[in-house]
Give the backbone structure.
Amino acid sequence: MQVPAYVEYEKATSVEHALALLARFGPESAVLAGGHSLIPMMKLRLAQPETLVDINGLTELSHITLAGGQLRIGALTRHAQLLGSALAGEHFAILHDAEKVIADPVVRNWGTIGGSLCQADPSEDLSAAFAALKATMVIQYPGGSRTVPAREFHTGPYETVVAPGELLTEIRIAVRPDGGSAYVKVGRRVGDWPVGAAAAALWLSGGVVSEAGLGLTAVGARNFAAAEAEEFLRGAPATEASFARAGQIAAEHCRPSSDQRGPADYKRHLASELTTRALRRAVRRARGMDA
Ligand SMILES: Cc1cc2nc3c(=O)[nH]c(=O)nc-3n(C[C@H](O)[C@H](O)[C@H](O)COP(=O)(O)OP(=O)(O)OC[C@H]3O[C@@H](n4cnc5c(N)ncnc54)[C@H](O)[C@@H]3O)c2cc1C
């Protein structure tokens, strides 16, 4: 049986307390949210923090609300809460699409949105969804906070802009009319990480795409996004031909690698096909033709 190395444990009682604990114990401390990623990494000695700062008691970080024209999701919100949120589903069906295919009920019941994003796995599902939605991340540090666009949040595999001593506290998504969104994933089996997945959010003006956001995960897309395909779609007719072309462009610009989940060529094919499918579903939702 694998067991983590000896570690100190502190339970935070507020965001300020958590930040104070992180400052006190320094870069050798780690935030403990759901622990579904961190604890296995500790068992494998891929992570060896000296102190765990448990944020599970911070109810102020567990919320899904609409405020200031934005959907606001607290970093400690569990996957299951997001999946069960009618408010989130009403505005961004993509979030329910993604949550339905993340892991299994055990992981979804305790794993958090903030933990998923901060883990920064290159195959993480919500990173692509938030990239498509052009979300904003709120990061708190002692005495203040800053915001970072979702596309600037990850600095590499398993790395983010959240510095030691900081906490991701909230994810914000602007709510705008006439839009639709969708997430489509291919995995090897139910509850598995994606072989490839695509996220689409688009807004219509008549029959034309006025704005588009495209996300990709597990296929080596820069910042989990397909910026060149978005550029192509802006002002294009919202037609099957445009969506197929956007898929091709998305595939041309990603850099998948061959691994145990599949060969690079297959993943590139998925990037194209899944982008097209996600756009097809998103436009139906924008037109009120699909739930
Ligand atoms: C069996 C299994 C299957 C899975 N399948 C999928 C899948 O299909 N798709 C998918 O996307 N994911 C999948 N996951 C990943 C899962 O979603 C994450 O493990 C989990 O949600 C991470 O969140 P957590 O709250 O458990 O984070 P933790 O494990 O507690 O933390 C992860 C990292 O983030 C840091 N951290 C956590 N919260 C914060 C914060 N607020 N501020 C700053 N740093 C923070 C921690 O210090 C740690 O470094 C799977 C996991 C498992 C175990």
Q: What stands out?
A: The longest strand covers residues 194-205. The longest helix spans residues 264-286. Residues 30-38, 75, 102-103, 107, 111-112, 114-116, 118-119, 124-125, 162, 167-168, 192-193 surround flavin-adenine dinucleotide (CB under 6 Å).
